[in-house]
């Protein structure tokens, strides 16, 4: 094998990624299949001499076996704690951070006060109040542990080493014990905290949030709207520390260290490798940073012994190490985007750049004339521009499948945006680092002002460009859930077909492939829009214990209910962000009932809401009352009254009682009734007891008063069997439910027809 680490590393990662999509239940069968295939390939002389096929099969089997072991040892035992309340004792092992008005603490437990459960694990807990405790102090606290379904939020947390999530409600019984002995990682966290504090002191809030994301991968200071803008503009990698950032930082450190070491590059390389490892620890060893750090360290070691590191092998080794440490990193979107973009740059960027430069500046002939003179004059900036374009095209080409799978969208102007901001982002990293170091040095702090000003200008420039490009027509190609797997499948088939037909003509094959794939995505997006034109979508979100209903009609968005389990807020915000929603026309808030309004304050903080209907004002907490009062139009109702809200597509009639809330409306001849938990149907108006579609949180009392066609139930997996069991047997074939399996989407067409399907099912 020419590149053994690349083959092993890529296979190890690919096997883990595919396993999460197919499900972890059948791993034993797949392991047996690949072991048998490996044995067959080793027995056959031709494939044994080739080595690659047996190596791939063996690596796949090992990857699946390791994932199964990791899941059995670290993940499965914690599932017994889902939905329980326990007194936990442990150490705060990471910096706390604030998000949506709550503070999050990562605790490595030493004891959990429940019998026959795992005792040592890591849990991410949220608190409405800050806890006065230092890092690695021992804390004893009562935690409500969230039940979690197999979704991306759970996978993301486990990839970060958080096997459980929960919240603190009882603050009276918190006990804190100071620990004098601290691990080495404590000092890396202190450095991180000091840098974050320095950035926040030097820059305004929004600029500080951006710089913190660029330097330290801390996105807590960024709004969801800002993240959506960067994604739509195609520069999400700017706010995710990865190879680009680490390459700039490493080069700066090498220049400085080479000067300090008086030109001794070998010594400077070893010292710089140590600095890269320190930077990785300060950032927090996130998968994308570890990938970039390993590649930089290998590059520096190769430089110190006068050998060039093999980038493909280095990338494979990085993937192998990361997935061996935590196989759940295989579904971390930041890591996958970083990995795929790096692979694209390594494979294609240099070749595309060289191909274009050879035609602009041929060595075998002398060109004369005005054009040749002009090309010679602008050679340096033009070659730099070609390099940026080739790197962007290469990175985008390889990361498109990841973006489509996870975000179901593609930023059309990503190459243009990268051309506009790449140089500015590189300079920003430099000025921000100098700004921080000058403040930390104290002695030279008086020199920081020009760097602060320049950093602020660069942040404003990058964000302005991103916002402008994201608002251009057709800036994002969005595909529905059904079209994504079709487009990816067709693209894979085309890849195999084109590159087999154009053997030895890689550049022609690559260009033809890019054109074909672009045409496929455009056709898919246009077809998708044509099919959806004139329709209204109602999404019943998979929000656990609660009810969140979002209605979309072209650009108009209404949040009819917005509550559920707190650990699902991440999914709800991701849904809004991925759908390109930046403005909400209408929102219903029913007091501070967490099951149907628990997400209200978080959504209002992140998005512009034009109209809010409140039932009733007395039940609003202070935070929600303040946020609602900031909206342009707020209507306050009275408990028990029937209110009618005139919307762009229908009139929504809202009926509220002391313990529940119900609404009914008509769309294109279809009647809809939506009820919160324990709604007593006998109190509903008689003319509203018939509905074609009945959406309910859990179960409605006196359900037999109703006459309904189809039922959509929003509840947890644990409760759903009991909920469905309460309905008549002849209705059970017409019941849909969330239960951790994905959102339910109703699409109502002008003709009156309605399609019912599950969003996110194939990805779950």
Topology diagram in text:
Blueprint lengths: L3 H19 L4 H17 L1 H6 L1 H24 L9 E8 L4 E3 L2 E11 L9 E6 L10 E8 L6 H8 L4 E5 L6 E3 L6 H19 L2 H12 L7 H10 L9 H18 L4 H19 L3 H18 L6 H15 L7 H28 L9 H8 L1 H29 L1 E3 L2 H28 L7 H22 L5 E3 L4 H19 L4 H27 L3 E5 L7 E6 L2 E7 L6 H10 L4 E8 L3 H4 L2 H7 L1 E8 L6 H8 L3 E4 L5 E5 L4 E6 L4 E7 L2 E6 L14 E8 L9 E8 L2 H9 L9 E3 L5 E6 L5 E6 L5
Helix pairs in contact: 1-4, 1-12, 2-4, 6-7, 6-10, 6-16, 8-17, 8-20, 9-10, 9-11, 10-11, 11-12, 11-13, 12-13, 13-15, 15-16, 16-17, 18-19, 22-23
Description:
By secondary structure, this protein is an alpha/beta fold. The protein folds into six domains: 4-77; 82-182, OB fold (Dihydrolipoamide Acetyltransferase, E2P) (Beta Barrel); 187-334 and 412-473, no CATH class; 335-411, no CATH class; 483-531; 536-759, Metallo-beta-lactamase, Chain A (4-Layer Sandwich), CATH 3.60.15.10. 50% of the residues lie in helices and 19% in strands. The strands form four sheets. An eight-stranded mixed β-sheet has the order 15-14-13-12-11-10-23-24. It has a seven-stranded mixed β-sheet with strand order 16-17-18-19-20-21-22, with helices on one face. It has a five-stranded mixed barrel with strand order 1-3-4-6-5. The longest helix is centred in the middle third of the chain and has 29 residues, at 379-407. The protein is globular, with a radius of gyration of 28 Å. The mean pLDDT is 81.
């Amino acid at each position: 094998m020419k590149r053994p680490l690349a083959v092993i590393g890529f296979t190890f990662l690919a096997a883990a990624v595919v396993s999460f999509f197919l499900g972890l239940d059948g791993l034993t069968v797949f392991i047996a299949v690949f072991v048998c295939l490996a044995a067959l390939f080793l027995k056959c002389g031709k494939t044994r001499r080739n080595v690659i096929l047996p190596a791939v099969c063996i690596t796949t089997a090992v990857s699946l076996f390791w994932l199964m072991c990791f899941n059995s040892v670290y993940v499965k035992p914690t599932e017994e704690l889902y939905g329980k309340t326990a007194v936990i004792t442990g150490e705060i092992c990471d910096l706390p951070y604030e998000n949506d008005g709550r503070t999050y603490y990562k605790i490595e437990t030493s004891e959990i006060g429940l019998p026959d459960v795992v005792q040592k694990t890591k849990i991410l807990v949220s608190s409405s109040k800050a806890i006065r405790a230092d890092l690695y102090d021992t804390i004893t606290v009562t935690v409500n542990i969230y039940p979690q379904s197999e979704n991306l939020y759970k996978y993301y947390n486990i990839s970060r080493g958080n096997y459980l999530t929960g919240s603190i409600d009882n603050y009276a019984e918190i006990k804190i014990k100071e620990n004098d002995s601290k691990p080495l990682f404590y000092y890396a966290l202190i450095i991180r905290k000091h840098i974050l504090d320095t950035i926040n002191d030097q820059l305004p809030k929004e600029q500080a949030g951006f710089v913190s994301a660029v330097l330290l991968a801390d996105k807590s200071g960024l709004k969801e709207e800002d993240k959506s803008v960067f994604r739509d503009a195609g520069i999400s990698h700017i706010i995710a520390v990865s190879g680009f950032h680490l390459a700039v930082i490493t080069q700066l450190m090498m220049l400085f260290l080479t000067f300090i070491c008086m030109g001794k590059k070998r010594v400077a390389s070893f010292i710089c490798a140590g600095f890269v490892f320190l930077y990785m620890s300060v950032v927090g060893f996130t998968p994308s940073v570890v990938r970039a750090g390993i590649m930089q360290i290998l590059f520096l070691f190769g430089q110190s012994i006068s050998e060039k590191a093999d980038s493909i092998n280095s990338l494979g080794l990085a993937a192998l190490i990361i997935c061996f440490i935590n196989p759940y990193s295989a579904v971390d979107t930041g890591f996958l985007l970083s990995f795929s973009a790096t692979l694209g740059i390594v494979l294609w960027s240099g070749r595309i750049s060289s191909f274009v430069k050879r035609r602009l500046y041929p060595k075998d002939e002398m060109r004369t004339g005005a054009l040749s003179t002009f090309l010679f004059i602008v050679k340096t900036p033009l070659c730099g521009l070609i390099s940026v374009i080739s790197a962007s095209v290469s990175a985008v080409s390889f990361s498109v499948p990841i973006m489509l799978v996870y975000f179901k969208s593609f930023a059309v102007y990503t190459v243009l945006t990268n051309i506009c901001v790449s140089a500015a982002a590189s300079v920003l990293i430099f000025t921000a680092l100098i700004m921080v170091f000058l403040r930390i040095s104290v002695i030279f702090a008086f020199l920081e002002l020009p760097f602060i000003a320049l950093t602020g200008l660069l942040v404003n420039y990058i964000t302005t460009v991103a916002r402008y490009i994201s608002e251009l027509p057709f800036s994002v190609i969005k595909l529905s859930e059904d079209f994504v797997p079709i487009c990816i499948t067709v693209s894979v088939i085309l890849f195999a077909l084109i590159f087999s037909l154009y053997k030895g003509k890689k550049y022609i094959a690559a260009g033809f492939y890019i054109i074909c794939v672009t045409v496929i995505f455009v056709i898919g997006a246009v077809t998708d829009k044509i099919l959806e034109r004139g329709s209204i979508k109602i999404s019943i979100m998979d929000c656990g214990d609660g009810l969140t209903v979002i209605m979309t009609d072209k650009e108009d968005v209404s949040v009819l209910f917005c509550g559920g389990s707190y650990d699902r807020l991440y999914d709800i915000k991701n849904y809004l962000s991925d759908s390109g929603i930046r403005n909400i026309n209408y929102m219903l808030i029913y007091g501070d009932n967490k099951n149907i309004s628990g997400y209200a304050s978080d959504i209002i903080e992140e998005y512009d809401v034009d109209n809010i209907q409140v039932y009733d004002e007395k039940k609003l907490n202070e935070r929600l009352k303040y946020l609602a009062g900031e909206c342009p139009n707020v209507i306050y109702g009275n408990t028990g009254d029937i209110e009618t809200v005139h919307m762009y597509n229908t009139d929504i009639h809202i009926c509220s009682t002391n313990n529940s809330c119900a609404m009914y409306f008509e769309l294109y001849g279809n009647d809809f009734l939506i009820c919160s938990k324990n709604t007593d149907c006998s109190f509903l108006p008689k003319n509203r007891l018939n509905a074609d579609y009945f959406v309910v949180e859990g179960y409605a009392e006196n359900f037999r008063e109703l006459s309904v066609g189809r039922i959509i139930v929003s509840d947890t997996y644990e409760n759903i069997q009991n909920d469905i069991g309460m309905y008549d047997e002849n209705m059970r074939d017409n019941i849909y439910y969330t239960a951790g399996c994905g959102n339910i989407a109703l699409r109502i067409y002008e003709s009156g027809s309605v399609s019912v399907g599950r969003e996110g099912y194939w990805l779950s």
